[in-house]
Structure formats: structure tokens, C-alpha cells
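pasting for the record
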Amino acid sequence: MAVLAWAERPHAPGAGGIDAAPAANARLLPELAPVADVPGLPRVLLIGDSISIGYTLPVRKLLEGKANVHRIPFNGRSTMDHVAEVESSLDDGKWDVIHFNWGLHDLKLMPDGRHQVEPGEYEKNLRALVKRLRATGARLIWATTTPVPEDGIDAERRPADVKVYNDIALEVMRENGVAVDDLNADVVPRLAELQKPHDVHYSRAGYEFLAKKVAARIEAALPRE
């Protein structure tokens, strides 16, 4: 199978896509494949959905020689999914920095009109996940959930729900002393330029933009000798 350029690979659920089994994902997407550590460098873990998959490789490149940048080998999907997956995500490793997000899958609307994870459950799940991540001793960085287009094409998500879920997450992070990487605020002024039309995902330039923000915040959190 030909390997697609990272910005052109599928970033939506579907057979053989990012919701496939981790082993299949790693074969299809180099972003999800394990990487070998360079001895002596801090270890960073990225946790998130397809947005984070899109910026994984450029973040790794930007931090080359400064940190070993790993990511979970699958789409992190919702908090509900990740409560069950968090131990496999952490992989018994020692992490210096964990950069994480859940949101776009949580606020997704189901056929009955309810969210995949309702706001109250989202808060409960986030608190449990933050507690577990804090127990690693890593420095934590929460990335805010990025925008849903206002054009109404994405019937599975409502743009206004992004703020509702971000507000919940920001309160949880404030209470737990977790640093915030406000990707939502960063990208909004350039959304028409960087986000794909009628899509929550981004162009190559969009992922490179997000990667620069993510890499800068991670670098600032790396342990100093």
C-alpha cells in the first residue's frame, strides 16, 4: 500500500482509517507507529483525536534533538473511550510532559439528539483522566478543543457546543493546576485560511500552524538540566 503524505491521509472515522485497530493504524499512518527514544532526551506523550494525529509529525520534527515525542497509537476519540484506554495509552512509561485533548468526539450528536458524552459525564470523565495523568508525575498541558465550522454542513456537531465543552475543561484544568494550550483561540483568527471547507480538520498549513503552537508550549514545559 502506498503511504500518503501526512497532510493527505484520512482524518475521519471509517474502515481502515484512524478508528481501526492500533496495529492496523500503525501500518497505515506513521504518526501512530512507535518511535525509538534518543537517550538522554525528555519523553513527551501526545494524546488526542484526529486533530492531534494531524500535527504529530510536524511537532516531532520541530522538537527533534530536544525531546522524544510519542503519541498514543490510535485516535483518542472521547473521554468515555479513553477512561477505558488510559492505562494502555500511558504504556507504563516515564513521561516528562503529556499534551492532551478530548472534545470533538464527546460533543458529537447521536441519532437520538444526545451528545456522545453529555457535558456532566464529560466533566466526570475529565476529572478521572486528569487524576490518572497527574499520577505519572509528568507536566500536563491541556489543549482546548478546536472549532466546528459555522456553515452547518457538519450535522453531527454544533459549533456552539465547543465553547460549552471547553469551558468545562478549562475549569477542571484550573482546579488541578494544569497548563492550557489554547489552540482554539490561536486558530480562530485564521480559521477560514487554515481549516478545510465544511470540515473540523485542517489543511497542511493548518496542521503546521497548530504544530508550531503545540511544540512551543511543550518546549517551554520540558525539564531543564
